[in-house]
Write a structure and sequence with these properties.
alpha/beta; eight-stranded mixed beta sheet; six-stranded antiparallel beta sheet; 12 helices; globular; binds adenosine-5'-diphosphate; binds aspartic acid; binds magnesium ion
């Protein structure tokens, strides 16, 4: 008998028929003698609809109330799935994040998990129940409903798998696993057999929404091995685990795309000590999440700095920088540009392969794609391009690295 934690995403429970299908899958596992905890998202589109209703009242609704509202999406789907299981004759019960013992901290709508007390879950499992747990939610020490950030059901599932010391953790979604690039953009992207935590984390935090990035961070920290697979077939998925030496044999494992990027540039900054602290301080006070930062050395006593961020933050960034620009000097100008996107190449093989950047930029140049700011980490190269070029950029770079053959290359090199 194994203890299996599965997570079903919004599309997988998006209709009544799909909920029935999920119920059948869960029942099969249970009939094979396994204990099952299914962590479930809201039906697809429901969370967006709830946010849309809140925005009918205000562009910036209370985040505490948003949490109370958004958490209802998952409560619908867990109750429905539990009912579907009852109809099949199974013993099942739905539980909220609070009932699952998930304690959280941090800002509303961006909660973090501080602890999971599995006592109740263990009791109900021991009584022979299939547990259907609401993803995306927990409760603060004070008893307030809290959500875990968009895509947060992935985090709920991985944290529950860790707390219950589950034998198996599966993230069931609407594609067969983690692909070399979003299969909806690059048609010959292939499903990876496996990927390391660090690569998955870079891909997730650079736009590959197949996994929420914080959930991958959590899995790495607690050593939770998990599989991403399709809820609508039985194909083997992608195993996410600690890196193995053989995984360095390919230069890059995947490509991520992040749309809706924007850039702010400050020009004409008098070259005095401390201006970067002023600028970054103002952006931090406005809670703007910066991505890339480019500081040009001063020329004729004047410096320039550029920052990229999500396009939604552009207006707030501009407003936050206005007083700083005025304070720094009369020649300081703020320029903005939206309509950008980021392409990221990810692979632990970059540590031992040289020329990765050269190959990528040659492919982009051959396709006449204009490139902008660049940032790198030990296992990532990211570049800004016009949003209208991003799909083509992903396709040509995917081809330049023969990523459509990645599983064969790896198999033959082990
Ligand atoms: P769920 O509702 O199951 O959580 P998501 O929509 O959050 O599913 O994530 C699955 C989607 O992620 C896929 O439909 C796919 O379009 C997208 N995606 C982006 N990058 C990748 C990738 N590298 N591999 C697989 N899917 C990806
Ligand atoms: N329902 C939440 C969202 O849409 C959480 C999730 O699906 O993981 O972001
Ligand atoms: Mg998701």
């Amino acid at each position: 008998m194994a203890l299996i934690v599965q997570k079903y995403g919004g599309t997988s429970v998006g209709t009544i028929d799909r909920i029935r299908n999920v119920a059948k899958r869960i029942l099969e596992l249970s009939q094979e003698g396994n204990q099952v905890v299914a962590v479930v998202s809201a039906m697809s589109g429901v969370t967006d609809k709830l946010i849309g209703m809140a925005k009918e009242f205000s562009e910036t609704p209370s985040e505490r109330e948003l949490d109370v509202l958004m958490a209802t999406g998952e409560q619908q789907s867990i109750a429905l799935l539990s009912m579907a299981l009852h109809e099949l004759g199974a013993k099942a019960m739905s539980i909220t994040g609070a009932q699952a013992g998930i304690t959280t901290f941090g800002s509303h709508t961006r909660g973090r998990i501080s602890n999971i007390d599995p006592t109740l879950m263990n009791k109900y499992l021991a009584e022979g129940n299939i547990l259907i747990c609401a993803g995306f939610q927990g409760i603060t020490e004070e008893g307030m409903i809290h959500t875990l950030g968009r895509g947060g059901s992935d985090l709920s599932a991985i944290a529950i798998a860790a707390a219950l010391n589950a034998d198996v953790c599966q993230i069931l979604t609407d594609v067969d696993g983690v692909y070399t690039c979003d299969p909806r953009v690059v048609k010959d992207a292939v499903k990876l057999n496996d990927i390391s935590y660090d690569e998955m984390l870079e891909m997730a935090s650079n736009g590959s929404k197949v996994m929420q990035s914080r959930s991958v961070e959590f899995a790495k920290k607690f050593g939770v091995v998990f599989e991403v697979r399709n809820s609508m077939n039985n194909n083997p998925g992608t195993i996410v685990h600690e890196e193995l030496p053989a995984m360095e044999s390919v230069a890059i494992r995947g490509i991520s795309i992040e749309r809706n990027q924007a850039r702010v540039t400050l020009t004409g900054i008098p070259d005095q000590i401390g201006y970067t602290a002023e600028i970054l301080g103002a952006l931090a006070d406005a809670e703007i999440n910066l991505d890339m930062i480019l500081a040009n050395t001063a020329h004729d006593g004047q410096a320039r700095q550029s920052f990229t961020m999500h396009a939604n933050d552009l207006g707030r960034a501009q407003a936050a920088l206005k007083p700083v620009a005025a304070k720094l000097g009369e020649n300081v100008k703020i320029e903005t540009e939206a309509g950008l996107a980021k392409l990221s190449l990810v692979g632990i093989g970059m540590r031992s392969h040289s020329g990765v950047g050269a190959t990528a930029f040659k492919a982009l140049a051959d396709a006449k794609i204009k490139t902008g700011m660049i940032s790198t980490s030990e296992i990532k190269i990211a570049v800004i391009v016009d949003e209208s070029d991003i799909d083509e950029a992903a396709k040509v770079v995917h081809k330049a690295f023969n990523l459509h053959e990645i599983n064969e290359i790896e198999d033959s090199s082990i």
